Amino acid sequence: MKPANFLYAATSGVLLLTVAVGVYFLFQTMSPSADIPSGPRNTVYTLSVEGFEPGQVSTYRIDGVPVVVWRRDFEQKVQSLELLGVEIDGNADLLEKVRTTDQIEIEPDLVLHFEWFVVSPINTGGYGCIVLSDAGDLGGFYDPCQDVHFDLWGRVRSGSTEADLQILPWNISDDASVITVDVGNAPRLD
User: Fold this and answer.
1) All residues at 6 or more sequence positions from 136 whose CB lies less than 8 Å from its CB, including other chains
2) What is the pLDDT of residues 127-149, one digit of tens each?
3) Residue 190's pLDDT band (cuts 50, 70, 90)
4) What is the mean pLDDT of the segment spanning 24-50?
5) Domains of the chain: which residue ranges?
6) Cα→Cα distances 46→36, 52, 176, Å
7) What whole-number distance in Å separates Cα of residue 131 and Cα of residue 187?
8) What pLDDT shows up at residue 100?
9) By CB distance 3.0 to 4.6 Å, which of 48, 76, 91, 161 could disulfide with 125?
10) Are the beta carbons of 80 and 71 closer than 8 angstroms?
């Protein structure tokens, strides 16, 4: 065998071996490691709210996600509607509706559920601190890490952040004993 042919054959062999090893490690890195769950995560959970009194606030931790469930009392319901610009003063029919129901039709296609409020208490606009419920200047939420005050709808009213609290998708059962909440897109505690 000529020396030039031997060099071609040796170079081709090394090149083929290098490609084979590269492809092997490429496929090895694509397989999940032991710390990655193999299936889809459940993101919809049910919480028992039977026995919740008006004005009661509870914080739950669901799959690493804190969730605040707040059942507003009459004064908080009136205040939350006023924050949305609904005129209540002097409207006896509306006040009676607020007193007896947990939802109100604001516009023909907009029904507002305002007795129950489900929110993630993580201030994503700051350091990721957990906000305090039923606190602050507005009686809504308060972030002591950055001195941020949120209203009853989780909207920023004063402070150094512009990010509102994330309202989580939720449904309540007909008898108001169970709330179903989806934490799939909620901020998580690290």
Assistant:
1) 142, 149, 150
2) 788 899 888 888 889 998 888 99
3) low
4) 80
5) 1-31, 44-182
6) 25, 15, 12
7) 13
8) 67
9) 161
10) no
Token pair, residue 113, equals: 């559920």
Residue range 17-40: mean pLDDT, rounded: 82
Q: pTM of the prediction?
A: 0.71
Q: By the 8 A CB rule, do 43 and 67 touch?
A: no
Cβ atoms 181, 62 nearer than 8 A:
yes
Report the amino acid identity of residue 39: G
For 56-104, the pLDDT digits (tens) are 999 998 888 899 999 888 888 888 877 877 777 767 777 777 766 666 6
CATH number for 44-182 (one of 2.102.10.10, 3.40.50.10580, 3.40.1390.20, 2.60.40.10): it is 2.102.10.10
What tokens appear for 160 in the block?
Answer: 């150094």
H helix intervals, the chain? 3-30, 74-83, 92-100
Residue pair 45/183 in contact by the 8 Å Cβ criterion: yes
Task: Read off φ and ψ for residue 44, nearest 5 degrees.
Answer: -110, 125
How far is it, in rounded angstroms, from Cα 48 to Cα 46? 7
Cβ count near 143 (within 10 Å): 26
Place of tokens 């150094």: 160
Q: How far apart are CA 174 and CA 169, in angstroms?
A: 17
